[in-house]
Amino acid sequence: MTVPIPVLFRRAAWLPAFFVCGLLCAWQSSDLAQKSEQAKLLMASRRYEEAIPIYRQLVQAVPGNTGLLLNLALAEHMAGHERESIPHFEAVLKSQPNLTPALLSLAAARLSLDQPELAIGPIRRALAVDPKDADARGMLADALSAGGHFDLAAEEYRKLTEISHDDPRAWFGLGNSYQAMARDAFDKLQKIDAQSPYVLALVADTRAQRRQYRSAFFFYREALKGLPSLHGLHAALAEVYRKTGHADWAGAEDVKEQQLPPADCGAHPAECAFVAGHDIEAASVSPKREPSAEALYWRARASNELALQAFFRLGELPASVQMHELKAEIARDQDQHLESVKEWRAALELAPGDAHLHEELAASLFLAADYRAAFDEASKLLAGGMNSAALNFTAGNSLLQLEDAVKAIPFLERAVALNPKMIPAHAALGLALSRAGKNAEAIPHLEKAIAFDDDGALHYQLARALQSTGQAERARSVMIDYQRIVKSNEEQKQQVAQEAQITAPNE
Hints:
Blueprint: H1 30-44, H2 48-61, H3 66-78, H4 82-95, H5 100-112, H6 116-129, H7 134-146, H8 150-163, H9 168-192, H10 197-209, H11 213-226, H12 233-243, H13 247-258, H14 269-275, H15 279-283, H16 293-316, H17 321-333, H18 337-350, H19 355-367, H20 371-383, H21 389-401, H22 405-418, H23 423-435, H24 439-449, H25 457-468, H26 472-499
Helix pairs in contact: 1-2, 2-3, 3-4, 4-5, 5-6, 5-7, 6-7, 7-8, 7-9, 8-9, 9-16, 10-11, 11-12, 12-13, 17-18, 18-19, 19-20, 19-21, 20-21, 21-22, 21-23, 22-23, 23-24, 23-25, 24-25, 25-26
């Protein structure tokens, strides 16, 4: 339930067809015509930065010419100057409200600035002009996903799969949208009651998918205590028994599943729909009221099933960037980071130079503990003009793991500047500063991250930093918390070891 939603339908696929000024413009000056032709050639050669000043001169020389203004906006957009391009696209649309190139380019600029809500309107207007435009529909699905409208995004991706049955982008987007719906349902369910047996059942599903069978067994058994008649739990427990070599015990759980009464469709419509195989219906939640815990549970189950169906279809298609990306994400989710690295590299063979794929490769290299390679990959992207918080974090944290805290600090400082809410970056920066002897500077970053300290390492480092800056009383308090965390973790390990034994079915 944790696969991210990438931008699948990228701008470069359709923008070159939009260079509208040339024969459309009536020139009174051969000099202007010559400049126009020069700019057009620069755009065709992807030398967008060089085309911008020429188009600016032309716009000034021929004010009010919509074609020139559009070409200036396109050049700015393709060169990455999104903020400068937007007012120019909007000016074009004032005179030609239904001009598809301007509508879609404006939307692409908004998406590049992480403004998906502002991108949706222009794309819908473009689709009203041409409902069969698959690239525009793909952009709409991307924008809806980025804006958190996962159910609407799934509808658009499903339409795309109907238009083009063999488009891996559409199937990948559809699967990711359903996974996001499942994740959203689980998050809402946790907010209602984190200890709910519905939550325990979904946690068990996740553990089983990761092949953590002893843990899955424990959570399924706990869920059954609160929901003994819930369809699917006994079958899931039977599957755990089979995976761990207990076929006889699996048979007993299969019998229990078969003996459950049919779902009451009046009282439990979502469960009834799921059991009947109507996954889209089960994944739907009425917008008229807050969904119940039960409805959210079945929404999560059904959305996961729909995601699996989409990804299965993706796997039937010829090798694609999207298939390798999916395999890389699955491997990462299962902590198989070397396998993930292999898949990102395979994806890059099909799409060399794709910045998103390079960024994910850097992250997987870090997770695989190949810190030198992770730093080299991230720093190469940063030198090429990318400047995301995630990239700076990967570069800085790699250097930190390589015991080069001083060189790590500038990267980590940029990461928290770009994304002040990035807690792991604050934690890494606090550790780097303290190891570099800058304890006073380290303290605020360690304090921001300390609530998420699950192994006590940040507490220990904060206590040392406080001690070194003369704050002995606070240091003692934090060290007590550190000792409590270490003790609690040890007790939990012992408890899990005792509880997570796979035993015979309950009578």
